[in-house]
């Protein structure tokens, strides 16, 4: 009887051990190690790296008063990091990267209407595009530098070599912070009509912290800055609005002024404004932030939150455009040098 029990016990042990012994040689180690290797491989596979740039951009660094030659894609990283918050959605950052790269490539192949300092293609200010290098960004971002630069670099790498074109030419990829609910026709802000810069609804912008702004002026300051004389308790009458619902023209005590001029002379956030007088003060409320032409950055951010891709975003704000390779235009620039 005891021998039977021993035999049965041995059989049971073999039933348990044999499958395990058969599987171990194919695992290449423990199950935990295999999972770690898979995770590392997956992480490596998903990380997009920035490839070497084919050309360098001569950028006039205003603080140092010298020209710095910056690899194209490194320049785009510095622009995106400077022009759009790094905590925006990745698809919005990718849209910004496309716009930034398009801007500089267009600058490379077109006759410049705005001249940069001698020996440079652009400077690092809003006159062209704001650019900051890694040292600048480390000072600004401090402890957040590592994750922010990684995220921005990823957005640039995933769009590397791509620009926006219309009729096979790089577009004027204008952008701004926040709309008033609509973008603006280029012709309503500049003198010429641009077919891909047409007014579109951008209702996402109402979520932007920069959507509403209030500014107060003394009546004397208001008169002096606009070159007008107020009559009685009234300020003026808005007589026309643009396709983007901004103020096109105003009449103040018989004098006609353009809404854009009022915005610029008073330093308003937007040309969509209304005003009221309270005693000797004039309180102006604006909606939106920026000129309103092209891509709204906050609109792009909230579109991305709604699941839209970078391609969805740029094709919404830049009507009829295509995403194209920059190679042809970069080669043309290099041939000119």
| Main β sheet profile | 3 strands, mixed
Shape: elongated
Compute the gyration radius: what is it?
Answer: 29 Å
User: Which spans of ≥5 residues are poorly predicted at pLDDT below 50?
Assistant: 1-46
Order of helix and strand elements from N to C terminus: HHEEHHEHHEEEHEHEEEHEEEHHEH
- Percent of residues in beta strands: 15-25%
* Span between termini: 99 Å
Determine the structural class based on helices, strands and strand pairing: alpha+beta
Organism: Bacillus changyiensis
Pfam families: SpoIID
Domain Sporulation stage II protein D amidase enhancer LytB N-terminal: 65-166
Protein name: Stage II sporulation protein D
Task: Give the helix/strand layout.
Layout: H1 2-27, H2 31-46, E1 56-61, E2 66-71, H3 72-83, H4 90-109, E3 122-123, H5 134-141, H6 145-157, E4 162-166, E5 169-170, E6 175-176, H7 186-189, E7 212-218, H8 219-226, E8 237-241, E9 247-252, E10 255-258, H9 259-266, E11 273-278, E12 281-287, E13 295-296, H10 297-305, H11 310-317, E14 322-325, H12 327-336
Parallel strand pairs: 1-3, 6-13
Antiparallel strand pairs: 1-2, 4-5, 4-14, 7-12, 8-9, 9-10, 11-12
Domain Sporulation stage II protein D amidase enhancer LytB N-terminal: 65-166
Protein name: Stage II sporulation protein D
Organism: Bacillus changyiensis
